[in-house]
């Protein structure tokens, strides 16, 4: 099940991706300016390369100086330069706005897609049982008739997810056979299970857990395939593995087919609102708070801070300002965890000190206002 920490991580990754888009759009804008003042090789007229070079230099300088203000404050004496710079700034922000929307859409879709991956992994178990049924070299009845795999095959709530999202392993018949042959069939645990005369429910469950833990989530061939399909598989697999194992453990011997398939969260609409808000509000964070980070980073140029550190601090300030029910200490601790796992070795202490100072200053000034659970001081 998705928790808020996972959503913070995914929002952070999306904001980092947007940073890369900004850099790309900035380079494209400079290329646009360069192209506008490049010699026209098809013209029969003599090209004044020195003049064009000077115009390009002036236009590029104006763009760099004023693009953050979204307008040219000090205009050039030449109309063409003003026109090119203005167009480049407008295009830069139009592209950035498009990137922001696309990244937000992808981030929500990717989070919601975790349930699809969860269902696919459970479906993979039934695929392996079908392949085992065609294995003429081994007596595979135990696995083919495994109670848990049958319960997964006929479970209505899981079937609804599979049908609704049209999930299947179609087109991978050869690959699945290789996975079965190379990663399951010859394992000691599987061979011992096949020798059982009449496997108990607990033995059925044990072999399914073995296949999930030791094969599906550890096999290099399965991992390679999933990484190809999911950019964040290395992180998502822990969530999906947890969902799958919890489902298997929850299957009861008396009502095997009646288990409830996992849900994304207890209240996905509420969690999604938090998720999207953290992303959007961090993008719109007032310059005042960015300047506050700069004021606290003594001897550090805020533009030269590790991008991840800056994003983490901006997200933390956004959360402290906009989510009144989340205690300040909870917010700081959550973003320290992000720094610990996704930034430099020294970032944890650095970010802790900065956020602690900023939170006190904003609380004293009345800009951070907490209510309900947010008033709890988690020392």
How would you explain this protein's 3D organization?
- The structure is a single chain.
- The protein is mainly alpha-helical.
- The chain has three domains: 4-107, no CATH class; 114-253, no CATH class; 285-375, N-utilizing Substance Protein B Homolog, Chain A.
- Helix content is 69%, strand content 0%.
- The protein is built from 17 helices and no strands.
- It has helices spanning 4-36, 49-66, 79-112, 114-132, 141-144, 147-154, 156-164, 173-184, 188-194, 201-216, 220-229, 233-250, 268-283, 287-296, 307-322, 328-342, 347-364.
- Helix 10 (201-216) packs antiparallel against helix 12 and helix 16 runs antiparallel to helix 17 (347-364).
- It is globular.
- The mean pLDDT is 90.
Concise synopsis of the structure shown:
The chain has 17 helices and no strands. It has 379 residues and is mainly α.
| Residue share in helix | 55-70%
Average pLDDT number: 90
State the domain count: 3
**Shape assignment:** globular
Element string (H = helix, E = strand): HHHHHHHHHHHHHHHHH
Low-confidence stretches: none
Largest sheet: none
Q: How far from one another are the termini?
A: 27 Å
Give the number of helices. Answer: 17
What key attributes describe this structure?
globular; N-utilizing Substance Protein B Homolog, Chain A; 3 domains; single chain
Topology summary:
Layout: H1 4-36, H2 49-66, H3 79-112, H4 114-132, H5 141-144, H6 147-154, H7 156-164, H8 173-184, H9 188-194, H10 201-216, H11 220-229, H12 233-250, H13 268-283, H14 287-296, H15 307-322, H16 328-342, H17 347-364
């Amino acid at each position: 099940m998705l928790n808020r920490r996972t959503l913070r991580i995914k929002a952070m990754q999306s904001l980092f991706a947007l940073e890369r888009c900004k850099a790309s759009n900035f380079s494209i804008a400079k290329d646009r300016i360069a192209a506008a003042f490049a010699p026209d090789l098809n013209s029969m007229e003599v090209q004044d390369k020195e003049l064009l070079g000077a115009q390009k230099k002036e236009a590029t300088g104006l763009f760099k100086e004023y693009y953050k203000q979204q307008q040219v404050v000090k205009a050039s004496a030449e109309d063409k330069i003003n026109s090119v710079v203005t167009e480049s700034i407008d295009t830069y922000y139009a592209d950035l706005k498009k990137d922001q929307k696309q990244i937000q859409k992808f981030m929500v879709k990717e989070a919601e897609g975790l349930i699809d991956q969860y269902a696919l992994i459970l479906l993979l178990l039934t695929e392996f049982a079908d392949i085992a049924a065609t294995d003429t070299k081994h007596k595979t009845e135990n696995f083919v008739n495994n109670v848990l795999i049958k319960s997964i095959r006929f479970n209505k709530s899981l079937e609804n997810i599979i049908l609704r999202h049209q999930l299947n392993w179609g087109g991978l018949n050869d690959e699945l056979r290789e996975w079965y042959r190379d990663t399951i069939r010859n394992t000691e645990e599987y061979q011992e299970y096949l020798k059982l005369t009449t496997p108990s429910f607990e033995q059925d469950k044990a072999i399914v857990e073995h296949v999930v833990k030791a094969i599906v989530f550890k096999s290099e061939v399965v991992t390679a395939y999933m990484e190809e399909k999911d950019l964040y598989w290395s992180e998502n697999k822990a969530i999906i593995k947890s969902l799958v194992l919890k489902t298997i453990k929850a299957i009861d011997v008396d009502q095997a087919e009646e288990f409830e398939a996992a849900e994304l969260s207890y209240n996905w609409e509420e969690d999604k609102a938090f998720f999207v808000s953290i992303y959007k509000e961090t993008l719109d964070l007032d310059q005042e708070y960015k300047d506050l980070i700069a004021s606290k980073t003594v001897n550090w140029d805020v533009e030269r801070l590790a991008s991840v550190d800056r994003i983490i601090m901006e997200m933390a300030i956004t959360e402290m300002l906009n989510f009144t029910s989340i205690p300040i200490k909870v917010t700081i601790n959550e973003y320290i965890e992000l720094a610990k796992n996704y930034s430099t070795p020294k970032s944890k202490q650095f970010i802790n000190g900065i956020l602690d100072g900023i939170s006190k200053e904003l609380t004293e000034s009345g800009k951070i206002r907490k209510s309900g659970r947010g008033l709890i001081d988690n020392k």
